[in-house]
Amino acid sequence: MTTKNFTIIILVDDKPGALTRITGLFARRAYNIDGLTVVKSSNPGVSLVTILTETQECCIDFITRQIEKIADVRSVKIV
Fold this sequence. Notes:
By secondary structure, the chain is α+β, with helices and mostly antiparallel strands. The chain has helices spanning 18-28, 57-68, and strands spanning 3-13, 35-40, 46-56, 73-78.
């Protein structure tokens, strides 16, 4: 199967350990993070995490479902 570039947009509560839980998921599943940006959103207490990754299309749905299960994650969107 061929790989494809994906951008994952995650809204997450701005709490200690939230980013570690998200990146830890990638590490445990052996998915590479090609780019990572974290900024505060316009909503107080909420951060916007953008992750760039290259993976197979069948895997991106699995990654998304796993991220949605993480505490403090409000929403996940694939672009």
